[in-house]
Task: structure prediction
Amino acid sequence: MRIFVTGAGGQIGSDLITTLRERGHEVHGSDLGPRPERLSADVPWHQLDVTDADRVAGVLGEVAPARVFHLAAILSARGEQIPLVTYAVNQTGTYNVLEACRTKGIEQLVFTSTIAVFGPGLPEYAGDDVPLRPTTMYGVTKVAGELLGEYYQRRFGLDFRGVRFPGLISATLPGGGTSDYALFMYVDGVRRGAYEAFCRADSRIPLMYMPDGLRALVELGDAPRAKLRRSIYNIAAFSPTAQQIADSVAGAIEGVRITFAPDPTRQAILDSWPRALDDRNAREDWGWKAAYDLDAMTADLVPRVRELLARTPGALDGHH
Ligand code: VAH
Result:
């Protein structure tokens, strides 16, 4: 199948493209910048700004994929620094992609939503259909993206589906998420032997290891439509406290020092999200089940981060 991925230069994109190609698909990537170095040079790549409606329609019309994975977005912490740009990329960008799917007759759009659609006052364990009252621009635009996609499905018959991702952890740097403290415990734990987390030690949000996240996208995209009773699904893996992640990292990296210095803005965002997600609908409808728990992730990820940094010392340089 021919597949198109927006925002493919981000934390999920390269791994998703590689996974889809391993399954025999023809995959086109796109992002503002050029093809990331870690992607094979024969991946067709399109420099694309999703806020440019004409170009989005032009590129999607030309490539004519059967399925689009729409990943392009500015994440929660970065989004609070530039809310208007975040609105344009996440909101107008999603509208432009939906419109291009409609006008170019593209069958299926897979949307990446997030636990940031939730806001304060929810039970510790949040289901799919609780009130969505996000506090961040990122969360507001993701709620609107979910609703817009459902509208396009009802009104125009677009096959729209998506997952609400927990914080994703992998050996790739994300850009400006609030869940990044978890990932940096691993990356800085390996390269510096120390990390000062921007949250409290008792912070607890849903997290997931990237291989599970990729499998969720692939499996949801492939699930027979008749089995899906809804479009957007919570998916869950594990929900450790920041201290529990630090302990797991300490078990794998000798002498690592992880400390906590909460940043009020990012801590407030973390505190507004639920502690854990109820993903029973995803389990029942399309057989979703996470494979990795915290310690299984640590055992798999630490050697990968080591190997990556040994091979390309600057590979994970970036801002915190
Ligand atoms: C963020 N990683 O921190 C994203 C995510 C868990 C929320 O969507 O903004």
Notes: The chain has eleven helices and 13 strands. The chain has a mean pLDDT of 96. The two ends are 37 Å apart (CA to CA).
